[in-house]
Amino acid sequence: MAGETVDLAAVTETAAGDAGVEHGGRLLAFTDAAMGEDDALLDRERRALCAVLSPEAFIDACALVAAFNVVDRIADATGIPLDPMLHAASGDVRAELGLARFGSAANTPGAG
Amino acid sequence: MLDHVRSPGTWWTGAERVEIAAEARGATRCALCRERRKSLSPGAVQGRHDGPHALAESVIDAVHRIRSDPARLSRRWFDGVIAGGLEVGRYVELVSVTSLIAGLDYFARALGVEPLPLPPPRPGEPSRHRPGGAKECGAWVPMIDPADAAGAEADLYGGGAFVPNIVRALSLVPDEVRVMRRSSDAHYVPLAQIPDPTYHRALARPQMELVATRVSALNQCFY
């Protein structure tokens, strides 16, 4: 990823484009739909994503939605703090994304 | 994964683990959970979760909260769960089963297929294995430090130089760390490759991280 420019705001806001990532807009729209409750929207976004990705890459996208729904619940339900090394390295990114507003930020001393 | 869920665990029987999985799945349709998600404070909405239930109400409430509203779990809530009589090892195992089922169900939803039916439980008794070396490390639950992963837990972290807290989070119940690592290896990136920005799957790494980060942002997960 070194040398590539990614629009970080796309992660926490509605993205109008690809966020600097190939097919980023389609990936974000599909992710949003998979996380939501509108089955018709998800069906449309799934077809749109499959039109631009290989079947293997589409399955990867589905697997990532699954994996981070596991990880996020484990993190939030066990109250783990962000690792000191990651905390020290991610200050700018966390500030840009405004992550301190999330309730689970309370589990990491100095996260605000 | 489902075979792990249906097998006797460390603190819960196979039948209890399948019940936990069923509650985790049912939470997505639970009227009380839906009302709580809409409320400014989840604790302000009282009632009973949609049933019938085979587990204690406090256990069901914990499973539903973790499945349906994880962003608003708090230390105070956790302390209340433990003070209510749920032993912390049982809690950690419950977190694992609930989270694994959430992942499997999101995978099915994303793919556009029906969730896999929950299998019948395997008979047998929980192992009641309490690992040595688990201690308070700044999380709500005790965890095993990589330096203390010895004996039966020597394999726990794969000997990597960096073991993030998310991998240690379930270590009070070591078998749940092992299954979480298998799940993560299959769905994301093997632990040893996480710091390597060149590692990728069919999706390029920036595409992978975009999806991963968006999911966590939508879940409002700081970690």
Helix content of chain A: 55-70%
Strand content of chain A: under 5%
The figure for the number of domains of chain B is: 2
Rg calc of chain A: 16 Å
Counting structural domains of chain A, the number is: 1
Shape of chain A: globular
Quote the average pLDDT of chain A.
Answer: 89
Oligomer: heterodimer
Q: What is the second-level CATH architecture of the largest domain in chain B? A: Up-down Bundle
Percent strand of chain B: under 5%
Name of the level-1 CATH class of the largest domain in chain B: Mainly Alpha
Query: Structural class, from helix and strand content of chain B?
Result: mainly alpha
How many extended strands of chain B? 2
Widest sheet: strand ordering of chain B: 1-2
Largest interface by residue count? A-B, 66 and 66 residues
Given the C-alpha coordinates, what overall shape of chain B results? globular
Low-confidence stretches of chain B: none
Rounded average pLDDT of chain B: 95
Total of helices of chain B: 9
- Main sheet specs of chain A: none
Core attributes:
heterodimer; A: 112 residues; mainly alpha; 6 helices; globular; B: 223 residues; AhpD-like; 2 domains; two-stranded antiparallel sheet; 9 helices; 2 strands
Give a short summary of the structure.
Chain A is mainly alpha-helical.
Helix and strand topology:
The complex is a heterodimer of chains A (112) and B (223).
Chain A: H1 9-12, H2 24-35, H3 39-50, H4 55-78, H5 84-89, H6 91-97
Helix pairs in contact in A: 2-3
Chain B: H1 2-6, H2 14-26, H3 31-38, H4 57-68, H5 75-83, H6 88-111, E1 134-135, E2 143-144, H7 165-168, H8 174-187, H9 205-218
Helix pairs in contact in B: 2-4, 2-6, 4-6
